[in-house]
Structures are given as structure tokens and as C-alpha cells.
Amino acid sequence: MWGPVPVGLVVGAIACGAILVAIRSLTHDRGATLAAGLGMVGMLLLISGVGPGGSVVVQDTLAGRIWIYLVAGLVLLAVAWPSFSRLPVRTEAAPAPSPVEAIAPITEVPGVGGERTSRES
Predict the structure, then answer these.
(1) Nearest to 6 by CA among 72, 59, 75
(2) Which residues of the chain register pLDDT less than 70?
(3) Residue 28, Cα to own-chain centre: how many angstroms?
């Protein structure tokens, strides 16, 4: 403790959050982040219990409870954070098509004109 500030709690929270953010941003996968987060919470539960020698790493105090809920909250936040790469991208309006080149008008149609067909006579 550095005065009223639990330095280990702050540094540990920053480290756990950084690991979760790194996994989420590098893999772009919620499942991998959830697996890492469940590993963190599982390890926290393991070291919160009484060990074979009777030692407890995370004690049942206010700081210990804050640490447990903080890690669980970081995991939920990292897993539930929206994926910005899957959001639709707004693009600029497509440029207007270039004007069509002038095409010579059709002056003759085959089969139509001055010739008479067998039906007309």
C-alpha cells in the first residue's frame, strides 16, 4: 500500500486489462478473450482458497473482494466490447459516370423502308 492506494491492485488491474485487450485486438475473437478471462478468474478463485499449507493469497477483505469483482468486470468488458471492424463503413458517394460518347443515329433499319414485302401487296 502506498498510503490509501493499493498499488498492487492498480498494477494488477492494468496488467490483466492489457492482456485481455491484447488478446482481443490481436485475434479479433471473443472466444479467445473469454477463454483467457475464464483462466484469469479461475486462477483467482484458486489462489483465493486456503492452500495445503494454510496460506491464502487473496484474503477475504475489502481489497480482495474488489480484486475479484474487478477482474470479472474487466473480462466482461473485454468480451462484450463491440467489434468496430465489423461495422459498416461509410463511403463517399460514387463519382458520376462520364457522359456517353455520341453515337451516330440509326438511319436505316433492315427490312423497313421503300421495299414492299409480300404482305403489303
Answers:
(1) 59
(2) 1-2, 85-90, 93-102, 113-121
(3) 6
pLDDT at 101: 64
pLDDT of residue 18: 97
Q: Other CB atoms closer than 10 Å to residue 66's CB: what's the count?
A: 13
**Whole-prediction pTM:** 0.65
HSE-up (13 A, CA, CB side) for residue 70: 16
Which residue bears the cell 498510503?
Answer: 3
pLDDT tens per residue across span 38-58: 999 999 999 888 888 888 888
Length of the chain, in residues: 121
Q: How far apart are CA 121 and CA 119, in angstroms?
A: 6
Q: For residue 1, give the amino acid letter.
A: M
Q: Residue 7 is placed in which grid cell?
A: 498499488
Q: How far apart are CA 48 and CA 64, in angstroms?
A: 8
Instruction: Write out the three cell numbers for 37.
Output: 478471462
Cβ atoms of 48 and 64 closer than 8 Å = yes
- Other C-beta atoms closer than 10 Å to the C-beta of 58 total 16
